[in-house]
Predict the structure.
Amino acid sequence: MTLILENFRIFALLRLNGSMKKILVTGGAGFLGSHLCERLLKEGHDVICLDNYFTGSKRNIVHLMGNPYFEVIRHDITEPFDIEVDQIYNMACPASPVHYQFDPIKTINTSVVGAVNMLELANRTGAKILQASTSEVYGDPFVHPQPEEYWGNVNPIGIRSCYDEGKRCAETLFFDYHRQNKVKIKVVRIFNTYGPRMLPDDGRVVSNFIVQALKNEDITIYGTGEQTRSFCYCEDMIDGIIRMMNTDDEVTGPVNLGNPKEFTIKQLAELVVELTGSKSNIIYHPAVQDDPQQRQPIIDKAKAMLNWQPTVELREGLARTIEYFRGIV
């Protein structure tokens, strides 16, 4: 009871001095969204989590529900939503190939129609709004590593297009609302991120490998295994996202957020086998369509504008993630 009263006192002081903000997080029950809600609550804000639970889960946020400054609303952002807020983090969209290819029309509507609805809300309320974009806007890049100035190499009619092009269109909408309506926008491009609360069946390479290793099943690599990714731990990513939101209004982005250290998929598989103590064998299957062969961010802008760079090494982050998966697999 004493702790509860102390928390109320802290929140009351924050509200009185104006540092407590009312913040909407779309996709707030998802992998990254739930970590973001948790961090914002720890910083003393009033957080509204909006989610339709397509890929999000109440399990990710149940530990937050006793906080009087946390509110959960079931809603799909393809439908208009109205509320008074100071900031909006637009995190809603299936982000793994398994999920965004399950209903590609729904995926692109979430990115495009959802962006319009959230931008309209920001325009009406004067809220600052951040778009969680993706490194997939670069497609299978001809430029390596990828700076924000690179326009990308994306197949507009492929099986990944619903996600890639949906996110590209969302960025267009954000900048057009900024230029035409003076909406205060922030755009970050999120590179491969991993950590606790990833779904075990989401089809992402980190979760796939960990689940297969813990079950001593064959670890499946699609392609040669020489394709590269750059893996950022979720706590580092959330820190970068919040720093971007809290920059001056003149800073719009886009800004790359990710780990500039590059690993091959084969190296990742070998490291997961080592850390789990698995008896799994690594096997190879044909590459999937439009799978990028190289993915590595240039984060000079994040370093300069946000004073941000990742701090959690892959081995440490994987160990934490494996421990989480041991409890759910």
